[in-house]
Write the structure tokens for this entry.
Amino acid sequence: MRTIPALPALLLAACAHADGDTPIADATVAEALETTQDPTPATDWLIDDIAHMAAEGGKWVASNEAYMTENEPFEAYAMEWKAGLSPATMTGRLYGVKDGEPTGDFWRFRQYWHPGKAKAVLEQFGAGGAVGVGTSWPIEGGFESIQTFYRGGAPARETGHRSNNPDEDIHITESFNIVDGEWKSNRIYMWKRVSD
């Protein structure tokens, strides 16, 4: 699927009526087919970030002490990244740490360069069927991303992330809720590399 990321959307488009009754929205088909005139090779910033995140086993841990509650009893979160089939793809997972033990996965990720759209794509898949899809781009000292999250029975919501790597073993992320185009800071985590 990494080599043809739009394949599921293209298959749906070819089916015209995926559930037998409801036509697929033209906008969805158009977005799936939207490409640049000439496929574009992956950018260095993405290749470098993937190499950085996946290096030395790709495991990162961040304290959650500032955000712990009765409903969020995790003292830390951990994420693990693995380089993919090309230098411009990786997969990852995020899980909690409670009483020193890992929980099950909360999120699974795919990040890759889409040569037809000339964009870095970030996808998340979560418990309960939640899906987040968006793009990333470089900013000074790191990169930024915007994703739209979908969950059955709930309105779609937009979130943003800013990430930077002040050194080889530190990765800082700040999450944002995006409301009417305004970025409202949510949480900040300092991730530390944990070598296997």
Remarks:
- The longest strand covers residues 101-114.
- The beta strands are 59-63, 76-83, 89-98, 101-114, 119-126, 131-139, 142-151, 154-167, 170-179, 182-193.
- The two ends are 29 Å apart (CA to CA).
- Residues 44-54 form the longest helix (11 residues).
